[in-house]
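Lab notes, practical 5.
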Amino acid sequence: MSMQARQLFTGCTSEDVAPLVFLTSMEEVYEEAVSRLKEASEEVRGRGGFQARRGKIHHVDVTVLKTPIGAPATAIALEELSRLGARIFVKVDTALGLQRRLRIGSLIVPIAAVRAESVSKNYAPPEFPAIPSHRFLQVLDKVVVGRGSVTPQPAVVMSTDVYYITLREDYEKWARLVAAADMDTAALYTIARVRGLHAGALLVIDSSIWSMSREEVWTEQIEESVVKTREEVINSLRVAVDIGLETLVALYEALKSERAIERLERSRGERRTTVV
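Output from the prediction step:
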């Protein structure tokens, strides 16, 4: 397939895709991330809700992509954009809180994901762990040091194929082991690892099995408490966008420096061999 070919679902060509990609399934997050771009391109609208714009963050090219919700859409995004040269992916989205310690609005960084969804099973055996790029975690730590606002809490999450709670008892059982549930992280981490890409995620707790449901938070309500909760979630998402974009660029610069050092060491080794 030609690198210039327009991809089937995202609608992107190589001109639309930077090596760095910021992913989300949320309109609010997409708009916030796009607002940070300098020299933003015209929006590319793909099939089924994919939207993309390319611009610059700190003079580095970044593509912001909105996907439909769920692991299949995340898989499509990684497959199509990696064909066009994307190599680093950071996703910002929401998750359902399973542990009481996480209040609504908490920001977490998944250090591993239980692969309870279906998509990742097509890429790797069930025993294979879904974990982020270790370089993403290292760079994220440096980015958040000294920040006075929300700091991501490390957590294990569970990715499933369902958005709304089915059997509450099942979630309570998992709450002893994992902090939150989402739909995309396991696929993101597994596919990135299999395809040789770097990936990380930041999730904001938007609801909890112990208190407020997603229906209450995101549907139109006039109750003051619900409006306040929604504002807290959106404020945390704004912080997550800021941290996510900063980490994306910092990770790119770190990897670029590592490659430059590797090239220098190879060059020195070749020179020594020639002299001998």
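Observations recorded by the TA: The chain has a mean pLDDT of 91. The domain at 91-275 is CATH 3.40.50.1580 (Rossmann fold).
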